[in-house]
Amino acid sequence: MATVQINKKELIEKMADNLPMLRTKLNFTQEEIASMIGVSRHTVISMENKKRPMTWNTFLSLILVFSGNSDTKMLMQVMGILTEELEEFLVPQKKEPSLL
User: Fold this and answer.
1) This prediction's pTM
2) Residue at 100 is within a domain
3) pLDDT value at position 21?
4) In this structure, is the dihedral angle defined by the CA atoms of residues 24, 27, 31 and 33, taken in order, positive or negative?
5) Which parts of the chain fold into alpha helices (H)?
6) Does a structural domain hold residue 18?
7) Using CB atoms within 10 A of its CB, is residue 35 exposed (0-12), middle (13-18) or buried (19+)?
8) Residue 37 lies in a domain
9) First-to-last C-alpha distance (Å) of the chain
10) pLDDT tens digit string along 1-25?
11) CATH number for the domain harbouring residue 71
12) Which of 3, 14, 37, 58 has the highest local Cβ count within 10 Å?
């Protein structure tokens, strides 16, 4: 089975670019989204203003939050954030047992 290849940096950049819009689409304040994903409000502000890079763990937390709503899930798909490759990467198929 081939390993799914994703460009984490590109996905993180797309999420950072669209974070304010996705957040406001759900009427979440910076404080509320920060609490949901386990970071400070200052961290959210810094990520939205591109003054602080988003980590992969923060990206995954945001995917979880925004995937829970059909509107923001669809927007992430249209924006190229929630790609088929990412979904396959996050939910890998069970490997067949080795015959050795």
Assistant:
1) 0.87
2) no
3) 97
4) negative
5) 8-25, 30-37, 41-48, 56-67, 70-78, 84-90
6) yes
7) middle
8) yes
9) 16
10) 457 789 999 999 999 999 999 999 9
11) 1.10.260.40
12) 58
Q: Residue 79 belongs to what domain range?
A: 8-89
**Closest to 64 (Cα-Cα) out of 85, 91, 37:** 37
How far apart, in Å, are the Cα atoms of 41 and each of 45, 48, 66, 100?
A: 6, 11, 18, 52
The 10s digit of each residue's pLDDT in 26-82 is 999 999 999 999 999 999 999 999 999 999 999 999 999 999 999 999 999 999 999
Evaluate whether 58 touches 39 at the Cβ level (below 8 Å).
Answer: yes
Residue 83 structure tokens: 């790609």
Domain tally for the chain? Answer: 1
Write the single-letter amino acid at 33: I
Paired tokens of 86 = 């990412």
Backbone angles phi, psi at 45, to 5 degrees: -60, -45
